[in-house]
Amino acid sequence: MASRLAVPILLTTSLLATACGADITPASNGESGTVTIENCGRTIEYPEPRRPVAYDMSSTEKMFALGLADRMRGIVMPSTADPSVKRSPWREDYRSVETLSTDVLSLEVVLDAKADWVLAGWESGFSQSRGITPSKLDSLGIRSYQHTESCFNYGSDLVRVPPLEALYTDLRQLGKIFRVEERAQRVVADLKRRARDLRERQPEGTPPRVFIYDSGTDKPFTSGAQAAPDSIVSLAGGRNILHDLAKRWTTVGWESVVRADPEVITVVDYGDEPVEDKIEFLKSFPPLARTPAVRNDRFHVIDYGAAVSGPRNIAAAERLADYLRSIGR
Q1: Cα torsion 129, 36, 178, 13: sign
Q2: Could you read off the pLDDT of 282-304 as tens digits, one per residue?
Q3: Judging by beta carbons within 10 Å of its beta carbon (0-12, 13-18, 19+), is residue 143 exposed, middle or buried?
Q4: Is 13-195's fold the same as 209-326's?
Q5: Which residue range or ranges hold the Fe/B12 periplasmic-binding domain (predicted)?
Q6: How is residue 213 annotated by DSSP?
């Protein structure tokens, strides 16, 4: 959906400064030149990547936030993310890194790029059905790292990590893998400080009920407790109406949305349908007509690049907090 709404993004100077090049520190595992990382239940020994490839905005902007644009072989960026890329605070970094494909992540693209390392999520990049998995890449001598948020889908015995903690974990782990630990520590410290400020400013009383709407007419596609928007809403002082659903991004029935009686609807803006059309559908959808969100015209737009796990999550929470305050909640 080619959006017509410009979504302002609030980022501190210290976070934006990370796009200007990485602070490289020595390898931290003795003479071997490798670091050992726990990732989605696997213990992996990483040499420093020389030709890394990142998939989608979640991966790419974590790399950019750590100042690693000039060390990347390329990115795979679905065309639906293009409007969000143009709104990103790392627009110049996007221009400086080769886009290898505007489709989904594939083994062919990775091999053609002669990549030695791949960053993606499980079922959001890596895929059993499409034949590009960490184990398959291992067999080809290519290391990989999965977003901690997506470990939830990767194995039922894995500990569920709250989305923001998953983000911090990824930034710290990537800092170790790329030998930019000090930079990663600074980025994480800044994000945590801003998150703490948001929590301290939350108003007393019952949090407003927020429905996160990604897409879908027959059934809505939305965020459960294991995806970044749940933490964004919570930090902003609201409550995701599907917070009790132990899922990441998922489809639910409209009945559950109507029953929750949302007071605010947060609409995700990306490139396959104009966000105005999504809002118009929600306003005209009869089952939602009696909800406070529709009756009071309370729609808040969140950019796709801020809704996926990444360094823009806190800025998204700051914007939503401002919106909730503006409507008296």
Answers
A1: positive
A2: 999 999 999 999 999 999 999 99
A3: buried
A4: yes
A5: 51-329
A6: E
Separation between Cα atoms, residue 216 and residue 55, nearest integer Å: 24
Domain chopping of the chain, boundaries? 13-195, 209-326
pLDDT above 60 for 49 = yes
The three-class DSSP label of residue 75 is: strand
Q: d(Cα 89, Cα 289) in Å, to the nearest integer? A: 36
Angle between helices 163-177 and 181-201 (to 10 degrees): 160
Distance of CA 239 to the CA centre of its chain: 19
Q: How far apart are CA 52 and CA 114, in angstroms?
A: 9
Query: Please, what is the Cα angle at 118 between 1 and 177, to 5 degrees?
Result: 120
CB 73 within 8 A of CB 52: yes
Instruction: Answer whether 278's CB lies under 8 Å from 245's CB.
Output: no
Short-list 37, 98, 40, CA closest to 73: 98
Taking only the tens place, the pLDDT of each residue in 1-39 is 333 333 333 343 344 444 334 443 344 444 358 999 999
- The top-level CATH class assigned to 13-195 is alpha beta
Distance CA 149, CA 46 (A): 20
Cα 104 to Cα 102: distance, rounded to the nearest angstrom: 7
**Which pTM does this prediction carry?**
0.88
* From 73-82, 144-153, 179-188, 211-220, the region with the lowest mean pLDDT: 144-153
pLDDT at 121: 94
